[in-house]
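Forum > Structural Biology > Help requests

Title: Can anyone predict the 3D structure of Acyl-CoA dehydrogenase?

Hi all, first post here. I have the sequence for Acyl-CoA dehydrogenase but no way to get a structure on my laptop. I'd be grateful if someone could post the structure tokens.
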Amino acid sequence: MKIHFSDADEAFRAEVASWLADNLGGEFEPLRFRGGPGDEHSFPEQRKAWERKLAEGRWTCVGWAAEDGGRGLSISQQVIFHEEYARAGGPGRMGHIGEGLAGPTIAAFGTPEQKRRLLPGIVAGREFWCQGYSEPGAGSDLANVKTRASFDAASGKWRISGQKVWTSLAHESDWCFVIARSEPGSVGHQGLSFLLVPMAQQGISVRPIEQLTGTSEFNEVFFDDAETAAENLLGAPGDGWKIAMALLGFERGVSTLGQQMLFHNELEEIIRIAKANGAARDPLLRQRIAEAWSGLRVLRYNSLRMLSGAQDGTLRREAMIYKLCWANWHVELGKLAMDVLGAEAELLEGGPYQLGRLQSMFLFSRSDTIYGGTNEIQRNIIAERALGMPREPRVRA
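Reply #1:
Sure, ran it for you. Structure tokens for Acyl-CoA dehydrogenase below:
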């Protein structure tokens, strides 16, 4: 595990910080610290323009191999980029799903033609992706998906029918990668395929889901005989589960350090308020702030340990504990924020009742232990896949 950075790494850190200082201003100044979890609905068009600005500076897909259009940066340099991006208040990435999930998966499993056709749009910040995994009856239990796909040999197209849910920014996306059941009568992990589906077609409708925060970054997506070309099947028919699991491994990649810097920014805001309003004099709150600070350092060291091996989509043991750890930590940080704010946590300035940054964080953090795999599912993964304990019985309808 590498904890310290070389002189060359620190020179690279200065380069990243300098570029962000020069470019994250002017028309992009309103985007600073905006568009993160719970705020992803904000400034979508401006953030898409920011993706193109990043691409001009070659700051998209920095960890991708050069042959895929990336910069091939070392793990150390990728960590530095994501940390400095968050430190500077870089907005939530509209291209995150494409850059962090779809792109690496296409690079790993796609044909040369698929990579040539699909990766450049992600690198250039021109094409945006969403994830078609969860369904009303298959959230954490992904193997229970019911969305169907069948290949029509006459037209050379796959036809897809079903429903996906909790699809982040589907209404802003050009493509969706979809796990669908392509073998009639199959159950569980078998008979699934991984399809790349264009969103701009009559067979797809998107309906927003209003959240506790009053925003609608999540959506339901309905596929009614939607189509995608034969060349948009990733891997072979039936490879869906294998590819889906590899994609989840990429999700535990280096961008987790950027996520932690966002957490650091939230904690710094809490500390600033505690000093200003006197909450820092409360010994119990001081203790909780110290525990939050310590917990964040533990998350960082585990991530560095997690990133010390091959970044090939394989879920190492260290990666399997990460979601459970950060979700619980962040929920407690939300509670701490409200207690430090005191009575102000219950107040809004007035209509249209725009939530404050920490109020929004607190409300959104209530979902942290659910999305991306519930805490219960995460504990099963740790027990069965990391520790090799007996699998619990599965009962399917």
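The chain has three domains: 7-94, 129-238, 252-386. The CA atoms of residues 14 and 84 lie 9 Å apart.
Shout if anything looks off.
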